[in-house]
């Protein structure tokens, strides 16, 4: 293989990988749970305003922050993986474990936390889930909101297990019930208010 063929092959493989990532991102955005998040929940969080923490950064989440900020909210992000910082909120991002959110954000309090697709995707064991929920409770102001998105095929129901009960009460949000499920996907949204 000559140099030109080699370069063409490398360029073709890079283009194919990028197209594959873009397709996966489009597929994720088309899911009914993502449409509800993008079209209903995020604008509502933005209208409520204040300081919002988004947990877990990916390419497909980077546009979500603008939705909330366009309504007046101040969005911060956190992600465990340092390499994913690029998909977080520029100048308002901290890299660390959500199970240690109370240490990572010891100097801050939030009006809301959105923790979608984290339980069951890294925060898996019962002990980790309890630790993460308690750490988030410590950084949410009393009366503040928590949205937890999780999948029934990844973990058992954390709310039925009582993991949220010490700190949070289920509460409807954005015209939706406190728990929203979907016929076509295993995703569940639970919304809460932080107990005082």
Fold blueprint:
Layout: H1 3-30, H2 32-48, E1 51-55, H3 64-69, E2 74-79, E3 93-95, H4 101-104, E4 110-116, H5 126-139, E5 140-151, E6 168-170, E7 179-181, E8 187-194
Parallel strand pairs: 1-2, 1-4, 2-3, 4-5
Antiparallel strand pairs: 5-8, 6-8, 7-8
Word description of this protein:
The chain has 196 residues and is an alpha/beta fold. It folds into 2 domains: 1-30; 32-194, 3-Layer(aba) Sandwich (Rossmann fold), CATH 3.40.50.150. It contains 5 helices and 8 strands; from the N terminus they run ααβαββαβαββββ. Strands 1, 2, 3, 4, 5, 6, 7 and 8 form an 8-stranded mixed sheet that branches. The longest helix has 28 residues, at 3-30. Mean pLDDT is 91; it is low at 15-23.
In summary, what is this structure?
With 196 residues, the protein is of the alpha/beta class. It has helices at 3-30, 32-48, 64-69, 101-104, 126-139, and strands at 51-55, 74-79, 93-95, 110-116, 140-151, 168-170, 179-181, 187-194.
> What's the CATH superfamily of the largest domain, by name?
Vaccinia Virus protein VP39
Mean pLDDT: 91
CATH architecture of the largest domain: 3-Layer(aba) Sandwich
**Outline, from the CA principal axes?**
globular
Number of strands: 8
Low-pLDDT sequence parts: 15-23
Query: SS-based structural class?
Result: alpha/beta
**Radius of gyration, whole Å:** 18 Å
- Helix percentage range: 25-40%
CATH class descriptor name of the largest domain: Alpha Beta
Descriptive terms for the model:
5 helices, 196 residues, Rossmann fold, 35% helix, alpha/beta, eight-stranded mixed beta sheet, 8 strands, 2 domains
